Amino acid sequence: MGDRAAKDSVVLRFSEPALFIGAPAVGVVALLGMGGVELEGALRHLALLGLLWFAFWSLKSVDWAAASRSVRGGLASIQVVVWLALIALHVGSVIALGAWGQLLTWPIVEVYLKQALESLDVLGLPRWGVVALAPLIFLPALAAWHVFLRGGVPSWRPSRVSRALLNAAFAVAAVSAIHRVSVSGDSFESDEREPLSLMLAPSTQLSAFYTWRIPPSPVKEREAKTSRLAYVPAGPATAPNLILIVVDALRHDRLGVNGYPRQMTPNIDLFASANGTWIASRFRSVCAESSCGLLALGRSKYPWEVTPSDFSLYEVLKRNGYRNYFFLSGDHTNFYGLRQTYSPVDIYVDSTEIPESVLNDDRAIVDAFVAAPDFSGTPTFIQFHLMSTHGLGKRHPEHIRYSPQLSPYLVHLGRRLPVDVDVSQVVNHYDNGVVQLDAEFGRLMGALEKKGYLKDAVVVLTGDHGELLGEAGYVTHARSTEEAVLSPPLIVRRFTDQSMPSAKPFPHLLSSQVDVAPTMLSIAGLPIPSGWSGIPLNEGGQSRTIFFAQGSEQGLYAVDDDLVHKVTIRGLNGPLKVEIIDPNGSVSSMQGFLSGELKSQAAEWEAAIKTEIGPGWVATDEVH
Question: pTM to 2 decimals?
Answer without folding.
Answer: 0.84
